[in-house]
Amino acid sequence: MHVQAKIGLTFASALRAFLRQDPDVVMVGEIRDKETVEIAINASLTGHLVLSTIHTNDAAGAITRMVDMGVEPFLLRSSVIGILAQRLVRILCPHCKQPYEATDDELEELGLDVPRTTMRGRRRELTTTRYYPKVVKEQDVIETMVERPIFYKPKGCDKCGQTGFTGRRGIYELLLMDDSIGPLVLRNADSQTIKRTAMEQGMDSLRDDGARKVLKGLTSVDEVLLATQEDVEAEPDRAAVSRAS
User: Fold this and answer.
1) Residue 239 scores a pLDDT above 80
2) Is the dihedral of CA 134, 116, 224, 185 positive or negative?
């Protein structure tokens, strides 16, 4: 249903009308102000599954964004199930993409150096057992990465209109409101602290997922770096990882 602000049919008024019909699931196109987010949270607290979008840099930023809108942290802790961040990257043309040997700088920028690759493998094992215990663990392309992997870059041909790319694909970051993230939300922690804790508990960042698609030859390093933020601040201490290794 489209909103019509000129006749008083706003996000908030439409959402109130929907809730009077007692739906099981409500899809709010976008959370953009305090009134909308409060109605969405109240709906979730009364047994409705609420799906919505909000513009932030990453998944953890959605929590601080809603707090900035005036939502009490304890309400977020009680109502939010999970937050999925996404970015779109262009897919390399399979007919003309050029292989080359990855450089040290590229591996470091993607977080594919030895310490962080080791930690990422541990995160994946933790995620499988902690978040999704019934899911059979599949072999991760990062865990099987050779010492010097082959990356691909665009070239351009008649099939792709000389652009080197055909279509787009999403890269994702899923933040779950579990027992490790909940207390941070209640303490009104900043987004970097929330993201760092989530990554220590097994969450893969947008750049992590982008790195997987680079290793699979689906997209280029430049595409992932343009679409994601640097994860250095959210990564565990490298010295500690090395000692653990």
Assistant:
1) no
2) positive
